[in-house]
Each structure stands twice: as structure tokens, then as C-alpha cells.
Amino acid sequence: MESNAVRESSLLAASGKEVLHTPSVTANEKHSMGPGLAAGPDKQGKTRRPLKWLNTGVILPLLAGILFLVLWEEQIFHKIFDLKKYQLPIPSTIAAAMRENFSLLLSFTGYTLTEAVLGMLVGSTCGFLIALAATAWPRWGGGSLTMVAALNAVPIVALAPIMNLWFGDGIGSRVAIVTATTMAAMAINAYKGMAAVDPLALDLMHSYAANKPAVFRYLRIQNSLPYVFTALKINATASMIGAIVGEFFFSSRGLGYLLSNSIKVAKMPLGWSCIVLAAIAGVIFYLIVERLEKVFIKWHPSQRA
Length: 305
Prior knowledge:
The chain is mainly alpha-helical. It has 14 helices and 2 strands; from the N terminus they run E-E-H-H-H-H-H-H-H-H-H-H-H-H-H-H. The protein has a two-stranded antiparallel sheet. Strand 1 and strand 2 form a beta hairpin.
């Protein structure tokens, strides 16, 4: 009888105080429960885990996307906006064009993505250094933020010919265009993160007689990381736009070049294939940056939800 009984939820300790314990189950009781219940919540959690991604945040956008494609395939949008099929190809025609030109589209997508990644890395690095200088030496570095904002206001269509004259018609001109378009977002966001530190934390660093490099290393740069990743997510999509628009003017490869030529010769399904691949590459690029954010700043409250 004693071996089959569940232990009492409370036991009197030797000191006379009541000590709480969770009910424990003996080996005989586990055997009587069967393998499923005896395994406990871990095994049940494993059975639920494959269905974890089926939440409303995934299902609703998925259903909305499928509905959008069905309406497009049935030419509902053509009737609403009075469009012909050569003006707006249906999804099945675009998919056929992607299958026929798969190797070409894959090669040009990789080329454009290389331009976007290189330009974003250079532009984000330059923007971060400008923010660092503006925070460390406000009197001298503060004006650099204004210059970066002015550079960002210049349209890409005006930058493209200038960069082509400076860096030639190779990949360097598109990298320069992306660099110019991504520098401002990083500089402004990183500067805000470095400047908006907790005054109490700053006073604590000063009370420990921390010098300026130590304050930057342990407080300002760490505080700017959430802002830096916000800028990187903005630049992930802006860099694709800069690379594609740059290829419109001076290039012999890339999605922008192929899109421009396809529109000129009225190959609209191939042109829409370029648009679809550019969108997919931009989303993948954004998701990679978002994943890196979860890895590097998992201590931040925004990543704990």
C-alpha cells in the first residue's frame, strides 16, 4: 500500500515547518499509466511542435496570397482595371517564362544580389563610422549627418550616370549607387542609438572613471545595436532597389538589365519573372538580417516576445 500511494503534497520538515513538494509518481504508477502518459509533457510537446507554425500569423498571409493569385489567374484584375493579357501576364504565363529561362534568371539574380550585398555592407559600414564620429566629436562630426542626408536626397536616376563616369560600367558603379543609398539610414539610426543612452548608466560609467573608448565599447555601441539592425533591415530592401535601378542605365547583366530589355521588346512575362525574383531575393535578404538580429541581440526585450 505504501509503495503505490502518491506522496503527500506537504511534508513536515524536521524543524516543524511545512515544506511543499509536488506530487511524485512511483515506478508502478508510471507503468500503469502507459507509455504515452508516462512520457510527460516533453513527449506531448514534441507531437505538437510540427504544427507550431500553423498559427494565424502564417495562415492568414498565406490564404491572402493564394486568394490574390487566384483572382489574378482568373483575370479579375484585368476586368477591374481594363487591362489586356500582354499588359499584365497571368501567373501561369509568368511561371512558364521562369521555367524556360531558369538558368539565365538564376545567374542574373545572383549577380544583382552580389551588387546589393556588397553595396549594403560598404554603405552600412560607412554610415556606422559617420555615426560614431558624430557621437564622439559632435562639433566636428555632427555636420557629416547633414551631408549624408543631403546625399540620400539625390535620386538614383541622377546618381547612376555619375557613378558610371567615376567607376566605369562594371559592378563597381552599382555597388557605389547602393552604397550611397544605404549610408544615410545606417548613419541616422546608429547615431540615435549611441546618443539615446540611459543617463543613469552614463553616470555609473563616469563614477567608475571610465574613459571615452570604454563608454563607447560597453554602453553606446551596445545600446545602438537594435537601431543598427533596424537600419540593416531597411537597407536590405533598399539595396535591391538601388542595384536594379542602377542596372537599368549601364549594365550588361543583372535583373535590372534583363527587365529593361524585356520591356523594350514587349516580353512582359520575362519582365515579370525578373520582378518576381527580385521580390523573392529581397524577402530572403530581409529574413537573413532578421535572423541575425535574433542571434546577436537576443538579450534585448524586443527579441523576447
